[in-house]
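Researcher: Structure prediction, please.
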Amino acid sequence: MTDFNYHPKDLLAFDQISVTQPFWRGFETAKNQVGLEDNVFLHAGPSFNSTDEICMPILNSAAVGAVFEGLAKNLDDASNMLLSGEIILKPAQDFNVVTPLAAVVTPQMPLHYVYDGNHGNQFCLTPINGGTGPAIRLGQKSDEAVEHLRWINGPVLDFMASGMGEGIELIPIASSGLRHGDDCHGRTIMSTKYLFDELASRVKGGFVNSEVRDFFAKSPSMFLNLWMAATKSMMLAAEGIAGSSMITAMGGNGVRMGLQIAGLPGRWFTETAEPPKGEILESLNPDRCLGAIGDSAVVEALGLGAMQLSSAPEQLKIFKNVLPDNFNARSEVLKFGVHYDFTEATPKIGIPLRSLLNFGAGPLIALGIIDKTGDLGRIGGGIYDPPLSLFASAMKVLEKSYEH
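Model: Predicted structure follows.
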């Protein structure tokens, strides 16, 4: 294994990350928590340069969000409001929000509120995972998607809120999941089970709506959004450490993949987002594959997900044909150290640019593959390998700023 001499500023950044304690404390809205304006919706990844650049799946999800929010009477009116600029789209991570795939966050949408119990002032918001059905993350414009979003934020929200109590610490759930076959991104089956069991045990009278119970049983990704928020809250502990190259944000908008680093808070560095490499529906032309999309890339940027396939043999089987030969080495060498609260499983986390540029490759990211046209939703899954130039450009600016 290659031994890197870690930069002191990256050591400091990891020290901050390694003592975070992400707790899920309840629900909040982006309007109340971060002052999101009524006509602003949030999307994954970096910003779009113009309205013309916005990919169709995000436009579709934004239309669904506008009807859900009550800003538009129907989906066609919502689309017109988006194309005219009456509704504005901005990057979610710029507001301490993370959102999966093509899902948008609206101002009044109920969001998980996850905060760092150690540092206190670090928090992250994320929507409730849509599970199975016409979820908003799939980027399809339909009345069914609107109704599904309302149901998620109705009975599912009520169940989760009723079982929260004083809050739930998230790292122990993730650690248990990792020990039993999860990777905390593409596979969260066990973590979702532990989450449901914990919530159900706290519900007054022990009664859980049978429809909600069945939904959780068929939706193994329900823990993912919470873990995305936990991941982001950990990363935020390193934000603002001058000279640190630790990755603190990562995500794709279907057009570009972007990242931020601790030493340059709030500044996106981007490259064209190629589609993930993987299997899609047999009848489809590869041209239907949208470029990498979703804030769930933060999970790999911290060091889990596709960077922790050693914990998830079933995921390894799925991706074995598209993984590069050096994926095992990347999983070990790029990551910094172990977080104190991971006990059942003890994965290394924290990826500084200095380490990956020394190695010559970045973190591998597992992502769903979305239909570019916005018609079919998720059409497959694969591995996205970000170009080294993405990290090199950020490092060049950091070095220049740190010299002065």
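Model: The chain has two domains: 8-17+239-403, 22-228.
Researcher: Thanks, that helps.
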